[in-house]
Amino acid sequence: MPELPEVEVVRRGLESHVVGRAIESVEVLHPRAVRRHAAGPADLAARLHGQTFSGAFRRGKYLWLLLNDGQATPLACEASESLLVHLGMSGQMLVQPASAPREVHARIVVSLSSGEQLRFVDQRTFGGWLVAPVSAVSAGEYLPDPVVHIARDPLDPRFDSRAVVEKMKRKPSEIKRVLLDQSVISGVGNIYADEALWRAQVHGNRLASALSRPKLASIIAAAHDVMTAALAQGGTSFDSLYVNVNGQSGYFSRSLAVYGRENQPCHRCGAPIQREAFMNRSSYSCPRCQPRPRFTGRRGVLAPVTPRIK
């Protein structure tokens, strides 16, 4: 699934290619692509028709295109609506010439005043679009209503690391689960959680509440650094399912330290990277740099018996 760097790459591409363009027509080719829009495909198409994309924004893994009278800033959008997009597992936002053959898995096609088309392509149909109102959430800040519960991400200028550390400290759950909790810290998915934990030398099964505040802060800093590095390389692409608006893949997969590197040597100590099952997916870590904690307890209650990490 695209994570923060990949979604930010797409947002920047949309900002360059569709902001300022008027919507001339909308075709919904697959109903699942708009299943989150309760009023249905015809209503979504009607509400987009004649609007202008006036800004491209993101919170965590969600992105939205502002729909209004051409104002290019979210500071003047109290009465605005937005086209809210989640890419799901395989969603792509492609800007193509109208004459280009349609992709096999094209789900929504928007014809723009530029003569180009914005196409939502989604092989697995887990992503989708909906039109949502935009509301004020703080002074000078507006968000689509469905994402107001999503926490800030480490690349957000208003991200408060100390406050997030305190929230993490109150969580009696494994630190990797906490990193994936979008109500605590957004934008971090499976790939960058593993990479951040490797950089901070913490196993994902350690309890967040048992980690010291400096160690929690170092994990947040590691997440910021690895996602910034990934963003500079266009994100992480393992296959053709994640691409930018121009169809290009990201290259950060070549720089991953642990994710997807089972049995390959750790870049820091040389030990073979190990893969473990985690929440119906995989976790990757170094058994030497990130020793797995031992737990005791009854009825599944976790109690760390390893020393507190400082």
Could you describe the 3D structure shown?
It is a single chain. The protein is of the alpha+beta class and 310 residues long. Helices cover 22% and strands 25% of the residues. It has 6 helices and 13 strands. The strands form 4 sheets. A 5-stranded antiparallel sheet has the order 2-3-4-8-9. Strand 2 (52-59) and strand 3 (62-68) form a beta hairpin. Helix 1 (4-17) packs across helix 6. The protein is elongated.
CATH architecture of the largest domain: Alpha-Beta Barrel
The overall average pLDDT, rounded, is 86
Low-confidence stretches: 70-76, 296-301, 303-310
Report, as a whole number of angstroms, the end-to-end distance.
33 Å
Tell me the name of the CATH homologous superfamily of the largest domain.
Answer: MutM-like, N-terminal
Neighbour order of strands in the largest sheet: 2-3-4-8-9
Q: What is the structural class?
A: alpha+beta
Which range best describes the helical content: under 10%, 10-25%, 25-40%, 40-55%, 55-70% or over 70%?
A: 10-25%
The top-level CATH class of the largest domain is Alpha Beta
Radius of gyration: 21 Å
Figure out the total of helices: 6
Q: Hey, roughly how much beta strand do the residues contain? A: 15-25%
Which fold name fills CATH's third level, the topology of the largest domain? N-terminal domain of MutM-like DNA repair proteins
Strand/helix succession: HEHEEEEEEEEHHHHEEEE
Tally of extended strands? Answer: 13
Domain count, please report it: 2
- Shape verdict: elongated
How does the major sheet shape up?
5 strands, antiparallel
